[in-house]
């Protein structure tokens, strides 16, 4: 057997082992969203996309509970209590927990408190100021000026219309990830989000800003 052939076989074996290692990973994620449609659909589709692209084995449960800020964080605890009673588990069946919520019209104190409380519990906090639509918009362009939900949605509608998406941007679309990933770029969204990330802990004053990129990067790391 020649050197080139032996080297080719070794590379193929390494690749095969990596795929098998990825398939056997069993980290279980719970993603609890403030919204019940847009965010839920996005993360479900993201997990499916990553599993298909990288032959991964992401195990994710996404819950949209229709509550906000501190109420959302408290509801995670309520959900854990429910699981324990319903399934007789003494240990929460999730290694990683993420909460997803927006600043919107909530007070600075409410928003900052919710983030700090969630962090103290060890949760990944995918917050957006002012709204989740900012994260979607960053797939297409860098946003550096403060922007409310209505303006974000208007810009997304214009972008979707330009790409011939019937109905434009619709919050309840089950193809929201597919659309922004096809016509925009997840890599650009991560890069743009990092550019406008101001750091620090006064999150309510960081507009525009979103930390959704943190959970997206962690999910990518899980399968690569």
Descriptive overview:
With 224 residues, the protein is of the alpha/beta class. The protein has one domain (3-223). The chain is built from 9 helices and 5 strands. The chain has helices spanning 3-24, 38-54, 69-87, 108-120, 133-137, 149-162, 176-183, 186-195, 212-223, and strands at 28-33, 59-64, 96-102, 124-129, 209-210. Helix 2 (38-54) runs parallel beside helix 9, helix 3 (69-87) runs parallel beside helix 4 (108-120) and helix 8 crosses helix 9.
What brief labels describe this structure?
alpha/beta, 224 residues, 9 helices, five-stranded mixed β-sheet
Fold topology:
Blueprint: H1 3-24, E1 28-33, H2 38-54, E2 59-64, H3 69-87, E3 96-102, H4 108-120, E4 124-129, H5 133-137, H6 149-162, H7 176-183, H8 186-195, E5 209-210, H9 212-223
Parallel strand pairs: 1-2, 1-3, 3-4
Antiparallel strand pairs: 4-5
Helix pairs in contact: 2-9, 3-4, 8-9
Large-scale geometry: globular
Residue share in helix: 40-55%
Residue fraction in strands? 5-15%
| Total helical elements | 9
Describe the largest sheet.
Answer: 5 strands, mixed
Instruction: List the secondary-structure elements in sequence, H or E.
Output: HEHEHEHEHHHHEH
Number of separate structural domains? 1
